[in-house]
Amino acid sequence: MNPKRRQKLALIGLLVLGVGAAVGLTLFALKQNINLYYDASAVARGEAPVGPSFRLGGLVVVGSVLRASDSLKVEFRLTDCEREVPVRFQGILPDLFREGQGIIAMGKLGADGVVEASEVLAKHDENYMPPEVAEGMKDVDACRAAQKAMAKALEARS
Question: In this structure, which CATH number among 3.40.50.300, 1.10.3540.10, 2.40.50.140, 1.10.10.60 belongs to the domain 36-157?
Answer without folding.
Answer: 2.40.50.140
